[in-house]
Amino acid sequence: MMLDLNEVESFYGDAQALFGVSFSVAEGEVVALLGRNGMGKTSTVASITGLLTPKRGLIRFQGQTISGQPAHKIARAGIGLVPEGRRVFPNLTVRENLVATAIPRPDAQVSWDLDAVYDLFPPLIKLRGRMAANLSGGEQQMVAVGRALMTNPSLLILDEATEGLAPLVRDQIWAAIRRLAALKLSILVIDKNIDALLALAHRHVVLEKGRVSWTGTSDQLADQDFRHRTLGL
C-alpha cells in the first residue's frame, strides 16, 4: 500500500479536527478526498505531510510509519505536495522555483527533471527566466505542480490545484493530472470539480466534520440524487 491512514486523530490546540480518519491509496491509484469547506480535508493533508502531528492513530507510507515525523523528512521519503494557494517563491524565477526543492531519485519509476516538467507544461519554457511574482495564477499553479514533481514523488497530493483558475488554464491542469495518472503515479487529489474527479479517480473518500462518512467508486458517486441526498455534495 502506498499510503495508509489508520484511525488518525489530529488537533489544533484543544480543538479536534480529525476523528478516527482511515483510508488508503494504493500504488498507481488516484483517490479523491471530498467534502464541504471545513470538513477536514486540509487537516488530513497537513497530518499526512507533517504540518500537523496526529495525537492518535498511524499514518504509513510505503510500509513505514511517518506520522509524527517532520515535514522535510516526509517530503524526502517521497510525498510531493501541491499546496492550496500555490505558495511559489515570488522572488525566484520559474527555473529557480523548480530546482529549489528538487530531489533526484535514480530508482524512480518516472524521473522528473526540468525537461520533463517543461514537456508537461510547455508555457513554462518561455517563462523560465521570469520572476514567479510576475506570473498569472495559472502559470504559478503550473510552477507549483512542476516543483512538486521535481521532488520525484511516489505519491503526489494536490490540494485545490484548480481553484480560482480561468477555464482554459483549469483544463490544462486537469490534462496534466490525467497524464500523471496515466503514468501510474499515486495521487491524492482535493478539488471541487466533481465531474472532473469522476472521470479521473478510482475511489472517492468523503469527509464530514472530520470523519470519513463514505468511501466508494465513481460509478456510485455519479448518481446525483445519491450525491446530494447522502453526501451533501
From TrEMBL:
Entry's Gene Ontology molecular function annotations: ATP binding; ATP hydrolysis activity; branched-chain amino acid transmembrane transporter activity
CDD domains, sorted: ABC_TM1139_LivF_branched
Keyword Hydrolase assigned: no
Keyword Transmembrane helix (UniProt): no
Highest taxon above the source species: Bacteria
Domain ABC transporter residue range list: 3-233
Record-linked InterPro entries: AAA+_ATPase, ABC_transporter-like_ATP-bd, ABC_transporter-like_CS, BCAA_Transport_ATP-bd_LivF, P-loop_NTPase
Keywords: Amino-acid transport, ATP-binding, Nucleotide-binding, Transport
Entry-linked Pfam families: ABC_tran (PF00005)
Example GO BP: L-amino acid transport
Family to which the UniProt record says this protein belongs: Belongs to the ABC transporter superfamily.
Protein name (Swiss-Prot/TrEMBL): High-affinity branched-chain amino acid transport ATP-binding protein LivF
Lineage: Bacteria, Pseudomonadati, Pseudomonadota, Alphaproteobacteria, Rhodospirillales
Gene for this chain: livF
